[in-house]
Amino acid sequence: MRFSFPVKENSFRSAAHDERVTARIGMWLGIAFTVCFVTGLLSHAIQHPPSWFFWPSRPVWLYQVTQGLHVIAGVASIPLLVAKLWSVYPKLFGRPVVRSAAHALERASILVLSGAAFFELVTGLFNVAQNYPFQFFFPPAHYAVAWVLAGSIVVHVAVKLPVIRRALGEKVDAEPPERGTLSRRGFLRSTWLASGVAVVATAGATVPLLRKVSGLSWRAGDDPQGLPVNRTAFAAGVHDSARDPAWRLEIGGRSFTRAELEAMPQITADLPIACVEGWSESATWTGVPVADVLRAAGLSIDTDVRVISLERNSLYAVSTLPAEHVADPLTLLALRVNGETLNLDHGFPCRIIAPNRPGVLQTKWVHRLEVVK
């Protein structure tokens, strides 16, 4: 049997390669990438706040929504990106390879865009699965390449804007496709369907209503106390120190036993844990407001507070509560969850639960609070 391989751009006849199809898929891919970029910047700023940045403590579910959107938009981008690349790959066979300076800039931007997009989506998938086969540290690499991706998209859109405007202004008709191929509308509908299926199959990690149909959802209340555990007490090296009867919460020259914390007025609140990996789970927490502990130690609540864990040698063993959260009565030193004493893996003897904060900043196994001057 003889096969012939098309080597010219105009040899590709499928309706999927029409610029009207490419422009529409590109538009939706651009929207998905924009959602990822903006929500990713928010998450980064919350964890590494510049001096000008402010993040409120209310509504309590805001970070849950923004980070859920971040991961859902990333999942939706995968079939969109594949469809976009399939639509434009005949351009690889265009000749001459470089026709002008603008054409060279366009090709370079596509190369950078494609590489950065694959990097962000692949490493993002590994992150939600908490699987890190690469040697670099995920957060700074993901953050840096996001800027590269955003810049390459801006350049690409600027160069292709006349084509994009023309293509979006033309209707996608329903003319019969060549035998054995999809029509333009059929290809677009298949792409939307693939993105929708990808979202529904995974979004249960953050959208409770989808949990029963999200077969590929990675985390959803798989712990006896109804909450996932990202890092166990054994992994953190605190299994013995957290159970030590001599444990004390140290703050401002004072110390409190767990029994003394339990004797203070308690607050019970329904608050979500929203993780940077995209999963979230709400629970009923009971504990002492951080503001009340500060007052009991004779300290002001109008200040940032550094929270220090029993854990050592971890990037997340120390976190900082902004003054906005310190003063919020729902920012708790939690002692119980869902009516039970905190499980050791959930932060016993006490942990921070603050509204509208990433899970990595909800420090477990707390043993000291320090006022930031």
Features of this protein?
42% helix; single chain; alpha+beta; OxRdtase_Mopterin-bd_dom; disordered N terminus; Fumarate Reductase Cytochrome B subunit; five-stranded antiparallel beta sheet; Sulfite Oxidase, Chain A, domain 2; DMSO/TMAO reductase YedYZ molybdopterin-dependent catalytic subunit; 373 residues
Description:
This protein is an alpha+beta fold and 373 residues long. The protein folds into two domains: 202 residues, Up-down Bundle (Fumarate Reductase Cytochrome B subunit); 139 residues, Oxidoreductase, molybdopterin-binding domain (Sulfite Oxidase, Chain A, domain 2). It has nine helices and ten strands. The chain has a five-stranded mixed sheet. Strands 3, 4, 7, 8 and 9 form a five-stranded antiparallel sheet that branches. The longest helix is centred in the middle third of the chain and has 32 residues.
The oligomerization state is single chain
CATH topology of the largest domain: Fumarate Reductase Cytochrome B subunit
**Shape call:** elongated
Q: What's the rounded overall pLDDT mean?
A: 90
| Cα separation of the termini | 79 Å
State the helicity in percent bands: 40-55%
Q: How much beta, percentage-wise?
A: 5-15%
Annotated CATH architecture of the largest domain: Up-down Bundle
Largest beta-sheet details: 5 strands, mixed
- Helical region count? 9
Taken together, the total number of domains comes to: 2
Domain Oxidoreductase molybdopterin-binding: 245-372
Transmembrane segments: 21-47, 67-89, 110-129, 141-159, 192-210
Protein name: DMSO/TMAO reductase YedYZ molybdopterin-dependent catalytic subunit
InterPro entries: OxRdtase_Mopterin-bd_dom, OxRdtase_Mopterin-bd_sf
